[in-house]
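Standup notes
- HV: blocked on the assembly model, inputs below
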Amino acid sequence: MALTNKVLLIFGTRPEAIKLFPVVHALNAVGGVDVKVLVTAQHRQMLDQVLDIGEVKPDYDLDVMEPNQSLDHLTAKLLTGIGNVLDQEMPDRVVVQGDTATAMVGALAAYYRKIPVSHVEAGLRSYDIYQPWPEEVNRKIIGTIADQHFAPTGVSAAALRAEAVSAEAIHITGNTVIDALYWVQDKIRANSALVSGLCDIEARFLGRKIIGVTTHRRENFGEGMDNIASALEVIAQRDDVGIVFPVHMNPNVRAIMDEKLGNNPRIALLDPLDYPHFSRLLSICHLMLTDSGGVQEEAPALGKPVLVMRETTERPEGVTAGTA
Ligand code: UD1
Ligand code: UDP
């Protein structure tokens, strides 16, 4: 097998950046690999927060994000944008992570040029193509294309083997989100000013149980988001809780949460927190309520229980372990 010497990592959203910055660091530490980073900026502000703390300087930035972007428009822009960079760079290998539009299109554009693809966080399955939507199909497409599958757990590795992926192509690695979490916690230990932005809220909710909340899944838009907001209003009737809710920038989430929860004294609605501040929230909370994938992985690592606000999860390990 020929030695790989130019590796292009492609990512575009907050969670991909969090889970790939440790991989960028690790590849940079390996001699003889020419590491290139292409960000699509499918997310803009939420991506930039991570590039900054994760110390990643992209070689390419497609800056594709548009307000309230549709899946088809986003996908079309990603395909031509990524394709142009691949034609220019012709890497020996492409690395994508997870199940976003950027990851799926990155793998597809590489396949169109017969460039091999490594998939980080491979083999997660809910076995329902509409939950989460469109992520379940995105990761199946990537799994069909990839020739290296980095599965976080034995469960995800078994899911790939059941789809006839050869055992030699599957590597059980753990989840890189834990590397990212430990990295940022080391940074906070060295410089506590990195989390000073939460001091006011910690003082406001002193003596109360802090409940952290995040939500953004497309299949929850509309009625699901409305139900989540109503449930939070009920929880906030207790006088022993303080709800800290950094609201995702997707307008389908923000509009409803601002309208229903904006004036509740026991609910702090915040802009998205940068990764140090979010990790501080994970450390101080009593419980997380979330439909996020990454948060289901991080909270148990810090001993915090998670209530998963979904009908199903592709991360059954937490349910089995009793942490989710
Ligand atoms: C995307 C991913 C989802 C992932 C999630 C992580 C797809 C189809 N969806 O969902 O898998 O779990 O990211 O958060 O790939 N916006 C901003 N600034 C930002 C980010 C988003 O303003 O920094 C707003 C924009 O109006 C944008 C909208 O949010 O159009 C939606 O962004 P998009 O990436 O399409 O979808 P997400 O719901 O964020
Ligand atoms: N996160 C963050 N700030 C926030 C909310 C979440 O840094 O205000 C981090 C969180 O620690 C996790 C990741 O973002 O690593 C999860 O991203 P998101 O929920 O948007 O996407 P998902 O994991 O569901 O794809």
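- HV (later): unblocked. The chain has 13 helices and twelve strands. The two ends are 42 Å apart (CA to CA).
- Next: hand off to the docking folks.
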